Predict the structure.
Amino acid sequence: MPTPFPADVGELIRQAQAGSQEAAGLVYERCREPLLAVIRKGLSHPLRRLYDSDDFLNDALAEVFSRKFSAEVLDSPQALAAYLRRIAENKVRDAARKRLLSKRFTIVLEESFDAARINEMEPCSTEFTPEEALVLRELVEDRLIAFLDELPAVYQAIVRLVLDGRGRSRNRRSAPLDAAPGLPVA
């Protein structure tokens, strides 16, 4: 069970946001252990080698001191604790996402890229790099295949007919969409 946040943290955050260094120090002291527990729980082994838990703590507290909380949140220790935990969790998630999408650690690099494959892709957005677009495309295909696996065989056959002529190879189309016995195969 996570270490609970003290009940007076909301008032201390108000004072720290108003400029009180003493209140900021008290918020740090009282929230340090509970937030570090949340941060360390979400920190994977590869990220532990790259980042220090205290860096995430400092980033989370910097956001706490600059964020505008409603009076209801600051007055409710439970709601405030949930917000503080979420801020700390998001700092770790952002770092993990940044690492995952970095060129060196991207999961896409496990599969070799050839320029023809990247250039054949239909651009889904000008905001994505080719690598990101490929990851997104593969994710959408995987989810679509999972969805199609749940359809009745008749609907799967209809989807197979629609996919014919879309430039996809027969093997790629038929693998996830095998027709039920007795249905014609496109």
In short: The chain has two domains: 9-101, 110-174. The chain is about 65% helix and 0% strand.
